[in-house]
Amino acid sequence: QVQLVESGGGSVQPGGSLRLSCAASGRIFGINSRAWYRQAPGKQRELVASITSGGNTNYAGSVQGRFTISSDNAENAVYLQMNSLKPEDTAVYYCNARRFYGLQVQDYWGQGTQVTVSS
Q: Cα Rg for the chain, rounded, in angstroms?
């Protein structure tokens, strides 16, 4: 099992910044990618950004140029720097870790952290 714990959420005004952190523990060997997802009220969970074990990153179009995902392998942590925040970024943000077993996928999730962008 892999345990993921997020931190860093909160309330911020439009145009502000927040940095989310996700610490991993447990059986983290062989994790292939880490990611941040978010879910707004009444909407489906969506991918925000991901980073592979090799350092390749991918972003949702709505956050491209504003958010940056990074990882610290020594600390088993992943971060999401969020700049120029907009009200539409308001959501619960979830940390994800993914491991591939051949054609099968095992996803692990954190408990989520609330981000609210409002004036």
A: 14
**Residue 33: how many other CB atoms lie within 10 Å:** 18
Spatial CA neighbour of 62 closest among 90, 42, 89: 89
Nearest 5°: CA angle at 13, between 11 and 15? 125
Q: Please report which helix (H) or strand (E) contains residue 1, including its range.
A: none
Per DSSP, 44 falls in state -
CA nearest to 106, candidates 26, 6, 33: 33
Q: What confidence score (pLDDT) does residue 15 get? A: 98
Question: How far from 62 is each of 16, 65, 75, 111, CA to CA, in Å?
Answer: 16, 9, 29, 23
Q: Which of 47, 5, 14 is nearest to 115 (CA)?
A: 14
Dihedral over Cα of 99, 6, 72, 75: its sign: negative
Q: How much is the pLDDT for 74?
A: 80
The answer to whether residue 42 scores a pLDDT higher than 90 is yes
